[in-house]
Amino acid sequence: MYDAIVVGARCAGSPTAMLLARKGYRVLLVDRASFPSDTLSVHYIHQPGVARLARWGLLDQVIASNCPPVRRQRLDVGPFALEGTPPPLDGVADGYAPRRTVLDKILVDAAAAAGAEVRERFTVGELVTDGERVTGIRGHGAGGGTVTEEARIVIGADGIHSLVARQVDAAEYNDKPAMTCAYYSYWSDLPKPGVELYSRPDHMIVTGPTNDGQSLIIVYWPIAAFSEVRTDIETHFSAALDLAPDLAERVRAGTRTERFKGTADLRNFYRRPYGPGWALVGDAGYHKDPITAQGISDAFRDADLLAAAIDDGLAGRRPLADALAGYEARRNEATMPIYEMTLQFAALQPPPPEMQQLLGALRGNQEQTNRFLGTVVGTVPIPEFFASENLGSIMGMAATAA
Ligand SMILES: Cc1cc2nc3c(=O)[nH]c(=O)nc-3n(C[C@H](O)[C@H](O)[C@H](O)COP(=O)(O)OP(=O)(O)OC[C@H]3O[C@@H](n4cnc5c(N)ncnc54)[C@H](O)[C@@H]3O)c2cc1C
Question: pTM above 0.85?
Answer without folding.
Answer: yes
